[in-house]
Amino acid sequence: MCRANCRRTLSKQAIRINGFGISSIIPLRGAASVKRRYNTSGFKRFIATAAMAAPAGETAYPPELPAFLRQSKTERHNKYVDLERAQRNRLLAGSQTPPSAVASTTPAAASPPASQWHRITNDPAVAERNRYMNVEPYAANRVKLNVAEGMCDYINASPITLGKRRYIATQGPKNTSVSHFYRMLQEQTGEKAVVVMLTQTHEAGREKCFQYYPLVAEESPMVLQPDTTEVKGTEEEKQAPLGEVELLDQSNGTSPSASHDLATLDQSNPRIIHCSAGVGRSGTFIALDYLLSLLHSGALDHLTTADSDPVAETVDLMRQQRMMMVQGEPQFNFIYDVLREQFLARLAGGGDGGVRGRGDAVGGADG
Q: Which residue ranges does the record annotate as region Disordered (predicted)?
């Protein structure tokens, strides 16, 4: 049995996706349109532009450029090493916590103190839902499905909060977890769901994400049978519709939220961001979406000393909410490159520097 928290049981119902509409999602009623937007920009073009804006080596940047964007490669490397050390310490602390402290139904009073970094391990039901065995949400900060008593409420997804912005970082759905993914959309976003897809379904001959949406409107309906995990609630709550799913397909490359498409999407609910593992590309995208919003609002203009580095601080804050966010030093450095290009473009009076709709800030590691 899954050690995740459980609630009470109901009947199961199939998911049926008609063209771009979802006619029924466990146990939803009514149509829900799925709009898919594409970004076909290339990674190499953006890298070339960023390289011209911020060449390697000693560069005479204007004094108006915030100090954290004038750091040397060595200084950034040292900060990434510190971030990796902090992450290893968190994972070590979590692995030393008895599983019963967080994951079981043992009363808290009878359990040893739980670490906030503990993960739900040694549970076959949970392991089967994970795409990668080494990427899991922290037990104290995970999305829980609203399920029946005795059923598993687990999905590999973590709520991420940065300032006033809310996200959910999750792995690419597996063929056995599509029903969990859509249930999460219903429960966490209500009538309007914004999903940002940062991976192709297959890369280098390996599946990275199950195709959880129809490719064309004329396609035959996709029918997905759920497992026995069922929602709880009143009959009215059980029949609540999922109104609209806005799927922004950025698997071929984009510059996060310098993108006009993302900026114009609904922000009243947390944005669902996924790649394959839900950590590398997803973390890079979320960091840039948040930091670019600060940059364009002028909130970073006053950072004239090296004492404050919002990039390192943001990555550390995300990693406290989900492991491995921004996976690898190239992705970490890319965040600086994008912010530097954008800030230099502002100084030159060029708006967003032509980054909208170009490039890929999420390439690199598998996540």
A: 89-120
pLDDT tens sequence across 217-273: 555 554 544 444 454 544 444 444 555 777 877 775 544 444 445 555 667 789 999
d(CA 236, CA 248): 30
Q: Answer whether CATH 3.30.430.20 is correct for domain 34-212+242-347.
A: no
Task: Return the number of other C-beta atoms located less than 10 Å from residue 145's C-beta.
Answer: 25
Residues marked active site are found at: 275
Domain boundaries, the chain: 34-212+242-347
- Are the beta carbons of 361 and 288 closer than 8 angstroms? yes
